[in-house]
Amino acid sequence: MTGWSRRRVLRTALSTAALGSLPIAQFARAAEPPFRRGVNAWPWFSLTREFPTPRTDYGWPPFQPQRPVPTANDLRRLRDTGLDFIRLPVDPGPFLAADATTRALLLDMLDAAVSATLDAGLGIIINVQANGATHYWNPDRMVASVTAPAFDLYRGLVGELAGRLERFQPGKVALEAVNEPPQACASDVWSQVQLALLTAARASAATLPLVVTGGCGSMVGGLTALDPAPLSPFEPILFTFHFYEPYLFSHQGAPWMREPVYRALNNVPWPASAGSLEATLASVRARMAQDTETTDEAKEAYYAETERVLKVYFDAQPDRRFVDKYLRQVRTWGDSHGLAPERIIMGEFGALRTDARYVAAPNPDRARYIADVRQGGEDLGFGWAFWNLFDGMGMMDDNTRALDPDIIAALGLTMPAD
To answer: What does the DSSP 8-state code read for residue 26?
Structure first.
């Protein structure tokens, strides 16, 4: 395609209007497109030490010292597996709360992380990822709209980061201004926020690749509802979405989920045909029996809802075909706008594991799910970034730094020699 309005296409299943086509930038035409196989490196610049209300600042250093941080050797080993980039979530709160001197120190720390990643032979996408659990520097205050109380400060940080990142190796560094926008899929409010942030970034960095996304938490429906036409002035750009469907599998046992159904959910198989409703419900009952904090009345209500949603899950029998159906919506959207598929990155996907901290998916099922999602994305030409390097959805042990061979295999990677 040579222009934005050269052809028009029919609506996709989740789109609300016919949209113009998008030119394929030279950035995505490279013989070896960047950002093909990656991993998220949370909580390197996350897990903060904010003071409780009414204070709005952070301790120093602002990041919890016990959090796992990749070493130079860890980064080198990741490259040896076949990964080519990391996506680095960065909590903006400490940067925005800091005075000029402290902010400069934080920016230097981030520069050092970028340099270490590049030195290991990896590319890097810096993702500004606000913490929804923080009482003050949270997404509502920063990116809910262009009139949000801290939006101007956030926009200023995005512009500053873009200018700093452009100094690094061309084609190996990119900036993603927001993580999982909270607005509705086709929200005009999100479009205004994203345009304002892209404007700030491009004013500071003429050639830095920028990563854009849709609303509703960067889900498939958010990207397919996105009109890419207004983004033309901001090339080079990439597009991203997140994939955790079905959540009953990927987030079973996740304590951070708000819906009570996830609390005791475990032993949900992948594919669904690998297990049975009866076996999973028995595991749920056993998990609930260990809960001494929830009342019997509440447990009864939670169990009834869990049984209902699990019946839907097993009736649907989700498997690789379920994954492919979702992902094809993204490819259809991209094709309809003349987007080369390598310009699209599945920026997060994964599933919680069962270990000493969590009771969740059976680990063989987890590996099968991750393999299906990864292969589905690759078959359609998308790059991807697995969630996560560490913690309960990770591929590397927080303490020993041992890589999980089953997840390495599921990701189509190779265990390093050492």
So the answer is: G
Q: How far is CA 29 from CA 123, 341, 342, in A?
A: 17, 10, 8
What local confidence, expressed as pLDDT, does residue 34 receive? Answer: 83
- Per the prediction, the chain carries an average pLDDT of 92
Stretch 273-300: mean pLDDT, rounded? 96
Whether pTM > 0.85 for this model: the answer is: yes
> From residue 79, how far is each of 114, 295, 342, 382 by CA, in Å?
15, 49, 20, 19
Element (H, E) at 125: strand 123-128
Helical segments of 127-225, H only: 139-143, 151-165, 188-204, 215-218, 220-224
Distance CA(405)–CA(415), nearest Å, equals 7
- Per DSSP, helices labelled H in 3-42 are none
Q: What is the rounded CA–CA span in Å between residue 89 and residue 151?
A: 19
Rounded Cα gap, residues 21 and 275, in angstroms: 44
pLDDT band at 342; cut points 50, 70, 90: very high
Sign of the C-alpha dihedral computed for residues 5, 8, 14 and 16 taken in this order? positive
Could you tell me if 266 and 354 are in contact, meaning their C-beta atoms sit under 8 angstroms apart?
Answer: yes
55-112: pLDDT as tens digits: 999 999 999 999 999 999 999 999 999 999 999 999 999 999 999 999 999 999 999 9
Segments of 351-417 assigned E as strands: 383-386
Q: How many C-beta atoms lie closer than 10 Å to residue 417's C-beta?
A: 6
Beta-carbon contacts of 241 under 8 Å, excluding residues fewer than 6 positions away, are 213, 214, 218, 219, 220, 222, 223, 330, 344, 345, 346, 347
Q: How far apart are CA 234 and CA 34, in angstroms?
A: 18
Q: Is the model's pLDDT at 290 over the cut of 50?
A: yes
CB atoms within 10 A of CB 150: 23
Half-sphere exposure of 343 (CA within 13 A, CB side): 27
Q: What percent of the chain has pLDDT over 70?
A: 92
Q: At what angle do helices 72-81 and 100-119 cross, to 10 degrees?
A: 40
pLDDT of residue 32: 59
pLDDT the model gives residue 9: 22
Q: What is the DSSP letter of 259?
A: S
